[in-house]
């Protein structure tokens, strides 16, 4: 399997999740125990409605639409028309978002995108492909357990993303330091990096 970081980025349609009422999909929510709460001031539904990063359910199923080819779980910008047709179809069933992931950390804006795609902020984590992804910002800041990590929630923007690369790099340094103290954070060998997110200013809810 190719490493997603060999590409500069791509389009993603992701289903937005209420992390208490919709996961796991095969189990009643009342059976779930030890559910983490989001940081103070946010509800699970707030997170589902506002978070614009890459974590969630990528490319939700739609039996009536065949996806175009994906590379490392993303579609190239030239396939935007086909992806918009897919997005329109799945949005009838789910709360979805059409975003562009930029692995250049915002150093090279994706000029091939229409002007309606605006910079929304930085996520922080990894998106290797649609079955291997993790947002530290979502799971370890917004739903975090360490004050050093959850403190970054005071800096996130209305999209629940980091506003600039400097803040993302600060989060990276904080997380690296905590890992050195054997903190209970994600450790699976993938490299976590800031990922710039582009999308429409408003999404389907």
Descriptive overview:
The protein has 205 residues and is an alpha+beta fold. The protein has one domain (4-199). The protein contains five helices and six strands, in the order βαβαβββαααβ. β4 and β5 (132-135) form a beta hairpin. Mean pLDDT is 86; it is low at 1-6 and 29-33.
Shape field: globular
Q: Identify low-pLDDT runs.
A: 1-6, 29-33
- C-alpha-based Rg, rounded: 16 Å
Major beta sheet, specifics?
Answer: 6 strands, antiparallel
Question: How would you briefly describe this protein structure?
Answer:
The chain is of the alpha+beta class. 22% of the residues lie in helices and 19% in strands.
Architecture blueprint of SSEs:
Elements: E1 9-15, H1 44-50, E2 57-58, H2 80-90, E3 96-102, E4 118-129, E5 132-135, H3 136-142, H4 147-150, H5 165-180, E6 193-199
Antiparallel strand pairs: 1-2, 1-3, 3-6, 4-5, 4-6
């Amino acid at each position: 399997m190719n490493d997603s970081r060999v590409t500069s980025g791509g389009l993603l349609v992701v289903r937005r999740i209420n992390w208490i009422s919709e996961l796991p999909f095969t189990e009643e929510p009342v059976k779930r125990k030890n559910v983490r709460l989001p940081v103070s001031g946010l509800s699970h539904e707030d997170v589902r409605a506002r978070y614009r990063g890459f974590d969630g359910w990528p490319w939700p199923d739609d039996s009536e639409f065949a996806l175009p080819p994906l590379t490392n779980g993303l579609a190239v910008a030239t396939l935007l028309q086909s992806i918009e047709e897919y997005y329109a179809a799945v949005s009838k069933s789910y709360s979805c978002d059409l975003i562009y992931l930029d692995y250049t950390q915002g150093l090279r804006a994706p000029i091939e995108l229409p002007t309606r795609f605006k910079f929304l902020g930085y996520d922080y984590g990894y998106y290797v492909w649609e079955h291997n992804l993790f947002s530290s910002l979502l799971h370890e800041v917004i739903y975090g357990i360490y004050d050093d990590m959850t403190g970054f929630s005071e800096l996130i923007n209305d999209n629940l993303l980091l506003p600039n690369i400097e803040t993302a790099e600060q989060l990276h340094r904080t997380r690296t330091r905590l890992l050195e103290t054997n903190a209970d954070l994600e450790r699976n060998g993938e490299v976590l990096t800031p990922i710039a997110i582009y999308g429409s200013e408003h999404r389907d809810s």
